[in-house]
Amino acid sequence: MPEERAVGADRVLVVLSELGRHPRGATLEELASVLGEPKSSVHRALSTLRKRGFALQNPSGGYELGDELLRLAFSVHEQRPEGARINPVLTRLAERFGETTHFAVLDGGEVVYRAKADPPGGSMRLTSVIGGRNPAHATGVGKVLLAERYRDRGGFDDWVGARSLTARTQATVTNADALWRELELCRARGYALDEQESEVGVECIAVPIALHVPGRIDGAVSVSAIAVRTSVSSLIRRIDEIRDELGSLAVDFSRT
Question: In the prediction, which pLDDT does 77 show?
């Protein structure tokens, strides 16, 4: 019985996760097809989610994420202590550079965006979202965090061996030796770059930060720029401005 309950709970979470990929809703048939599950099983999972307010059925008969999930997600996000410290910094950086700023953490082979600030006014903005994920090896925040976590080649090789370094663009580094050299460079200079490696037309510079214990990196802050508007070379020239704005949150790898 406990195993059956675990399987059922897992199915509910899988359905919930898949619903998150369909902001305009999805039918029972579509969900069952994508998940490769019987419609009866998916329907039971949806019924459980609807009962608790985590899913709803729209007028056209499709299923969407429910308001209870949104309430819970935003409540947790707003109550995280890191948010109170990070958000004002991101906002100031976005205003200063006129570009989008992020705070992200490392989760296995991906980075998760915990906070984001868009530039003011009608500037062109990025489509990244809080809670969104990207491959760590293809992003500035990911590379700067990988550089901190894997300081020896053995640990890095174990990490690479457990995953595939897929290409997001033609510029994405997918060779383990080349990526390792980049991580060494990150540690030496104290920042990482994303030169249209995650998304064509977007360049980024990222700096690691310690939020709780000096010297212990908790995440990274990035300035992500539209390439035709702000070049990566200009971001590098202004790296000291970023560090000054981060203040006590910034940690220089070369000094740790």
Answer: 57
